[in-house]
Design a protein that fits this description.
The structure is a homodimer of 330-residue chains. Chain A has 330 residues and is mainly α. Chain A has 15 helices and 2 strands. The radius of gyration of chain A is 20 Å and the shape is globular.
Chain lengths: 330, 330
């Protein structure tokens, strides 16, 4: 992509992100009860990347539609995503997200449960605003993604106590927890943007592969990110004993003492901060980081290949977004 | 209503209830992950009255439709109701419901949150199965009810710490927490049953007034029910300091020492079991139980009046259901 184009798309992305943030804030303005809508509003101020709404917008464009036609659907997917974050943070007992207190820490458990429920209910309400035709199929795919997100979270929770998680298990989990949502965003954008059957299918698969790449990049960033951005602790996944792509791949390849040391982390359900560097050494020795990079690359290529089936020049925006996400540093 | 008819409808109700229970159990059979679907299945075994599905079925019939046409919608409203119970029980820190351990007590907090989310997601999936036309309006009213249930629960939570709740506040709360759902059930049944605009509106209002009557009957039963059925403690609302119709009406009418004693319960956020009888005495002295009975009656009459606009004989089933619910002893 030409630098010029890239710069233009970047400005567009920033502009649309601001619009989305404004829309999100306006959603709950002056709405009662305040005890419900003030917390929901709070959580939407966290300044995320708004990737999922952007996938809806750019997918609509890629099939010849307009942003205008899918702007509520874009909000709906962000609300669905936020709902899952709020409830996941309770389950993970997380104190902070993106340097802000999580909802159950800022308020209390009841408020957080109910605010999550409310985000989901408003998600459906917003989605309905963009539905005139294809109503049933749109609600169907939105609901299917929601079901998969719940199932994915359940698998993820199971992993905490299951010491025999395989890479295959892991892939099923991220398929549901992450890829199902990005897949739905692209599919929904394509449907509402007026795409044909094959265009919709291509974009759906684009979203799915992108989701895989995105999650594995996330696993990698846990140990390679520039520290302290967005309040993430480097090696946090190791400290918590999370069964990530890196850890599971390392377990497959490690031998002798390395294997013992990895199994200890599994058994102890985590490790101390000072050990992070030791585990990183094992990863480096076994070439895990390169393998993960390769996995990100493969999934990205699979995603981009799907765009070959589209002949609209607007698909450049999706190529840019994929690049932007998968080469991110945090 | 003739005794003969009443008996027939009662058998029909029992038969349909069994069918609903079977459908609910089959929903999650062999579904994975088990860690998610086994708890959701557990909570649906609690043997509730299945009033809300029955409202859907009977409303469809009352406009000339068939049970067959709305059987998934009937399941959907029960799932929505169950979702709200599971999350409410967490917020209320309730140990038991209908003599069974609540989900967060039987399993744990995370499982209960996620099972609730899942029940809601499957609710939409089920509803979609009955939608061919009127898809948008059906999803709209379903979502509107969901939003109101969340808002109602938020008001209810606010009441716990607000010592100045009025009867008007209370009515807004039960409108959202209870009546919005029964209203939606009847409206949905009427729409999917193929009813005309006026029939739909009559049934919607029938459902709303019935919801009010139902909730006030519930408040009354707290102090008048046959003890120990379904594991409810007599006077439980007083012990917990819940702002019910009874308590708020009593606060309006009480003077001198009675008023002081009532305010003490508000201030202390509840009372001891041995004081229940004293509060019941105040209620009796002030005629609160009669006033509440009158309120149930008025709302029931408002509901039944709406059925005058329907000329289908099948409306007898709704009359029977209203009678069955509002004259219940527990």
């Amino acid at each position: 992509m030409k630098a010029q184009n890239s710069k233009q798309i970047n400005s567009l992305y920033e502009r649309e992100k601001r619009k989305i943030n404004t829309q999100l804030q306006n959603l709950f303005k002056n709405k009662k009860p305040q005890s419900l809508y003030s917390p929901t509003s709070y959580i939407l101020k966290n300044g995320g990347k708004r990737i999922r709404p952007m996938l809806v917008l750019f997918s609509a464009k890629a099939v010849g539609g307009s942003f205008e036609r899918v702007k509520h659907a874009a909000i709906a997917v962000e609300l669905l995503h936020s709902f899952s974050l709020v409830h996941d943070d309770i389950m993970d007992n997380a104190d902070k997200r993106r340097n802000l207190l999580t909802l159950h820490k800022k308020y209390d458990l009841s408020t957080a449960i109910l605010a999550g429920d409310s985000l989901l209910s408003i998600a459906y309400q917003e989605l309905l605003k963009d539905l005139n035709k294809n109503t049933k199929s749109s609600i169907e795919i939105f609901t299917k993604a929601l079901i998969e997100v719940c199932e994915g979270q359940s698998y993820d929770k199971d992993f905490e106590t299951n010491n025999n998680v395989s890479l295959t298990d892991y892939k099923l989990m991220i398929k549901k927890k992450t890829a199902a949502l990005t897949e739905m965003c692209c599919q929904l954008g394509a449907i509402l943007g007026g795409g044909g059957k094959e265009q919709i299918n291509s974009l759906k698969l684009f979203g799915r592969h992108l989701g895989f790449a995105f999650q594995i990049r996330d696993d990698l960033l846990d140990i390679t990110a520039e520290e302290n951005k967005f309040g993430k602790v480097l090696g946090g996944d190791l400290i918590e004993g999370k069964k990530t792509f890196l850890l599971l791949k390392a377990l497959e390849l490690a031998k002798a003492n390395d294997k013992k040391f990895l199994l200890k982390l599994i058994k102890d359900k985590g490790t101390s901060t000072k050990n992070v560097i030791k585990y990183k050494d094992i990863y480096l020795r076994l070439g895990i980081l390169d393998l993960a990079e390769k996995e990100v690359e493969n999934n990205t290529n699979r995603a981009l290949k799907q765009l070959n089936y589209l002949n609209n020049r607007e698909k450049e925006k999706l190529i840019w977004l994929a690049d932007h996400l998968l080469n991110r540093k945090n």
